[in-house]
Amino acid sequence: MSAQRLVEQFESLEKQDHAARLAMWMFLGSETLLFGALFAAYAYYRGMYPDEFVQALHHNSVALGTTNTVVLITSSFTVALGVHFIRENKARLTAGLFVVSTLFGAVFLVVKGIEYSHHIHENALPSGMYTFIDKPPAGVVLGYTLYWFMTALHGLHVIAGMIMLAVVALLCWKGRYGAHRNVAVENVGLYWHLVDVVWIFLWPLFYLTD
Amino acid sequence: MSQATIDADSRPNPLGVGADHPDYLRADSGLRSWLLTKDHKRIALMFYVGVILFLGLGGVFALVLRTELLTPEQTFIDANTYNQMFTLHGITMVWLFMIPAVPTVFGNFVLPIMLGAKDLAFPRINLASFYIYVLSAIILLGAMLAGGADTGWTFYVPYSTTSPTAVTWMGIGIFVNGISSIMTSVNFIVTTHTMRAKGLSWHRMPLFVWATYATSIIILFATPVLGMSLVLLALDHAFGLSLFNPRYGGDPVLFQHLFWFYSHPAVYIMILPSFGVISEVVCSFSHNQPASYRAIAYSSLGIAFIGFFTWGHHMFVAGLSEFDAGVFGALSMFVAIFSAIKVFTWVATLRGGSISFATPMLYFLWFLFLFVFGGMTGVAVATQSLDVHWHDTYFVVAHFHFIMVGGTLTSFLAAAHYWFPKMFGRLYDERVGLLTSVAVFIGFVFTFLPQFLLGNGGMPRRYFTYPERYQWLNVLSTGGAWLLGAGLLLALGNLLLALKWGKRAGPNPWGSRSFEWITASPPSKHNFEETPDIERSAYDYTLSEEVARERAKAR
Prior knowledge:
Chain A: Keywords: Membrane, Transmembrane, Transmembrane helix. Chain A: This is Cytochrome c oxidase subunit 3 family protein. The complex is a heterodimer. By secondary structure, chain A is an all-alpha fold. Chain A is about 80% helix and about 0% strand. Chain B has helices at about 25, 30-35, 40-70, 80-115, 125-145, 160, 165-195, 205-240, 250-285, 295-305, 320-350, 360-380, 385-390, 395-420, 420-425, 430-455, 470-500, 545-555, and strands at about 425, 505. In chain B, helix 14 packs antiparallel against helix 16 (about 430-455). Chain B is globular. The relative contact order of chain B is 0.12.
């Protein structure tokens, strides 16, 4: 079983797993910088328009945002449990936990959708969506734009993470992963934690600092 | 494993490790075996074809530009076409040639062999990286045909967001190109960490590996930022979703910050692998160990690190405060310190070596001259007070062409000649190689040296007409450009002829001790039958192979 999964360019499974983990961390570093550019833009504009940003962030409901934070952290917890149990060779339990995490991800997206529809009703839109007449003051629009763009990009990451979680859950259920073979499970777990961590930064920036 | 393979006791095959297996070019045949290959060497060759095509395309754009500038008034294209041309020249040369050139071709080919590995850590990701590169090239070429771009390769807002050209697709194409870069760099980093042969410690690795490793770190952490800024730009251009538009309170300078946060490290992405190539060439042809291995290895990492803190020097006249500009200027000059460490170490390596002279060595000398000359002007442009005068003139154009083209192109050619026997098992014609090399150098100097004078005299870049008094320098520059183009074509022709009619090279024509020459030339499909056991550094010209093997056995 494990002899088959050693690909020809590696000498040992240990090295192969090390390589897979290292590559995932490298990729996560890259992802961090992707959001880092936007955090830099946020800091830059928040420094330029402190009052307008506060005005823009008043549109966000702290209750919904915090709900979403709790949802994501819980899903991260279930993913971590799943990774723990795959090491104990309880693949079916892991599959169940990953499915639960995926459902939490779906809940997160639903809540996000509710928020988005509120914003559309309140005319809190990204730039480019306004007619000349109803345009809010300059800095406020920037706040909306950053909010929409950063949360939408994060939402895409949530969707990607959910797809990966679902696929890995299915493969766990089929018995492909176990104590002897868990790097893919761990890596997907790591990715989901990254999605979570990014949100934990977005949450104070867009909900708690008005 | 047949009986013919080497075990540690028998004498090694005089034709190199793996010589009794069919080489990678003949191991499998048919188009499918190439297009779906996971062999790093074949992927490198496919990249080779790609980057040479784009070097040609970018060169054509450049020649159109130079020919237009032959006369003060309009020569043969209108102003708008001229704007398109310099933009497309920049985009093609930067993202489709210079950034991928050395790492994807020579890095892919020799890095795993240097580490004693059978392949990169993730061969499938490597192949995907090639196809994503092709996809990005298709998007960019499509965008060029469907409206091009006239913003300059830097896409400065606000003009780029309202330009009637295909800026959106250009942005998407470069974003996709960045994904390919990141995949390759993850592959290199992980390979360097996990696939080194037994006994190959970090300080025994060939310096090319260090250089590629440092490059990969820059790619990994800088590229996403560019990707993000270009996505924002593309969305702005397509839907008006703007973070940089002053109408919504945006600040165009923020785009410059984000753009240069990648694109300044990008010039180190172009030049660091070249340092690696040059280190290999110098040590191989002086048959000497580098004067200080660690100085070269660590200065690469130093440049990778400090390169992230220098982006502001592109914006001295964009409203930075004098203090900020001073800090960025000083940080930029740090790069010169690291570069100087390298240059002096290379020169010191020549001392006491037994130098054999061949085309790669000649390219090393050209590299040295162009790099030092360009580098010193770099220190000058990093000085704010001087940059205010030189900003957006031909001085800057000359400076970055000296460094980027002088550095990347000469080292790319040096690598093409140096590893040619390794890749194809044949020798190119040395006399023609030397002649083309001289042509390239003379053409290069005639192209860009006058531009320093033009820029200092006040001729702005990106203008398609100029006052009479600049004409004689422009004529020189245009003549040089045509000579440079001819030299490159002849060099390419020389290598292409050698593919079929070159003399058989044998496993190690240069007498190098670097690990990639242990294998047969061309290498077999898996490079090594079993992971080699390394008991010396890559530049040990004193320890004989037999003694090294004895020691490895004794371990």
